[in-house]
Amino acid sequence: MNIPVYIQHAPTVLDGTAKVWIDDFLAGLPKEATILEIGSGTGRDAEYIERKGYPVIRTDIHQEFVDHQRTAYEKQVYIYDVTKDSLPPNLPQTYDAILARSVLNHFTLEDLKKIFMTLAARLNPGGKLAFNITKEFDLNEIASILKNNQIQIYETRAVEGEQWAYLLCGKKGK
Ligand SMILES: C[S@@+](CC[C@H](N)C(=O)[O-])C[C@H]1O[C@@H](n2cnc3c(N)ncnc32)[C@H](O)[C@@H]1O
Question: pTM of the predicted model, to two decimals?
């Protein structure tokens, strides 16, 4: 990925299916909920969520995105590689909600087995997980991996003509 070019062309406004999906993700979450974002990128979605009154722990694997968000929004972004689960020790270690938009499609199903295990361990009981994935992935297989990690899909939004399926999931408990 050429990150400067990506940043230049990335949409700056959250709209369409993704906006409805994020609104549903936030519905019912108390304002003091802890929210972790994996692969924040340009920070568009974290900004939207924070403007609604929810603080977000923003993370990304690439320093360029950290620098971009610091300049654009004066926001702190932490370096985090979801495959290595390298969450800095000064951050909360578990969360009420985790968002990963347009990140998990970069991995194989084998990688996803490990990643979902990691994310499940990072979610509090009853916590929410929202991610989208391209439609080439078999959603039944994804559902089965999630189920093995005590996570259930409770909504899938897959609009005809769009390449993404948007999922809302919850971890058992509470
Ligand atoms: C297509 S961008 C999406 C950015 C943002 N979530 C959005 O929807 O605009 C993918 C993001 O995932 C990040 N990423 C890629 N591999 C990652 C990894 N192993 N751990 C964490 N983030 C990763 C990239 O740096 C990039 O910010």
Answer: 0.98
